[in-house]
Amino acid sequence: MPRQTSPRVRLALAGALSGALATTGVLALVPLASAADQGSASAPTSSTGDRRAPTVEEGQVVTPGDFTGYGFDQCLAPTQKSMNTWWRTSPFSAVGIYISGKSRACRDQPNLTPTWVVKQATKGWRLLPITLGPQASCQPRFPRYDDDVTIDPRPGKNGQYVKALKMGRREAVSAVAAAKALKIAEGSTLWYDLEGFDHNNTACRESALSFLSGWTQKLHRLDYVSGVYSSVSSGIKALDDARVSRPDRFELPDAIWLARWDGVANTSSSYIREDGWRPGGRVKQYRGGHDETWGGVRINIDSNFLDLGKGSTARPAAEMCGGTRVNYTSYELLRPPRETSGGTKKSDPDKVAALQCLLKQRGYFDTDITGTYGGRVVTATKAWQRDHGFAEQDLWSRKHWMSLLASGSKVTTKYGSSGDAVRRLQRALNAASPKARVVVTGVYGPAVETAVKDWQERVGMGASGVVNAKTWKKLQAGARG
Fold first, then answer.
1. Do the Cβ atoms of 15 and 276 come closer than 8 Å?
2. What is the pLDDT, as a whole number, of residue 57?
3. Which of 12, 92, 459, 476 has the smallest count of CB within 10 Å of its CB?
4. Which backbone phi and psi does 398 adopt, to 5 degrees?
5. Beta carbons of 373 and 352 less than 8 angstroms apart
6. How many angstroms separate the CA atoms of 323 and 173, rounded?
7. Whole-number average pLDDT of the chain
8. Band of the pLDDT at 53, cuts 50, 70, 90?
9. CB-facing half-sphere around the CA of 295: CA atoms within 13 A
């Protein structure tokens, strides 16, 4: 998917249709039936810098940023209300939008405005701007309209498909104009949707590759990043074969978007080699048109998995209490020292130090970090328990740990999110269950998703993997199921 590194710095690229259309996916032939502690790395993105979160600078959106996670695409850009609801309730953080191209089914986009684009990026959505223009000459379902054209399959005198190349360049110019009109800035990735075609038809294939080469050439000159969506068994396979056997023949895209409806949320396919556009240059559409309902809002979508740029990463956490360790894969019961037949039994001093540090940060403990569960700790823990709806006890249990570790803003956090909110979530999950054992990284990945869904099931919530305000409230209440 999107290359947010400078479009002039190419990826190091080391390295038929008929029945395939039904099994590999067709993006557009069917209607795709801000807080600092939020989920994305928060550093600004420049049009020539690295790809972090999508940013809005002076009303211009640079997207999609470094990201690993789920996305969806739909023919018609959803309403703002639908987007807001899906941000809070769905696992998706990226959305494909059709911004240009005379072959697209949804030429009219009443919701797609500069304001809409800026609002989505501000919320945290990764935008995937799509162009569906001229299609391969042997694609049987195009042209779609009277003013629609297909890629010119005629070779020139030298055997090169110059006309197709020039068509690709013109389409890039139109796409950039549409992107700029929507406030999608330089450094963003623009995707060309090339529907599946007969890969064995030489003129059709070679003219399509020349067209895509022209698309990429022009985007680079206009300071945008080039992406191509296609059926993995035709357009993507043709690109991958060219990458390996004719690396100097075409200017290849910076990122590829595989249409392969195998139901597997990754970016791999047996149709192409594993080394191309790695790392961070792939999206896979793994499920075709279907209805999904989140928060009571139903949309017909295609489902995608993205692995772009550096992927989702988190900056190092700020040092706490002079370097006191607070990240653990388990947070067990703590209590004051007590006499047993084997002598005085004390709680783990490292965990007590972590408790003292966290209470201190929340304003409940105002003395030195000692690692001893003494009178001042008891006073602080009881104050916390009282203020957060728990019975006052000398004991500090897992539910108390959860309430303290999860405390803070209730920002929506989901697969692909990163930052301090994710660290709070990871710690709270480890407190909720001794089986979770999530490594505290600040990045919401597959292990966190599994732990969230397991916990949500235990406490009687829908296992969406999305941690929104309602979910945070239960975490902060110490719900363990």
1. yes
2. 79
3. 12
4. -60, -40
5. yes
6. 53
7. 89
8. low
9. 16
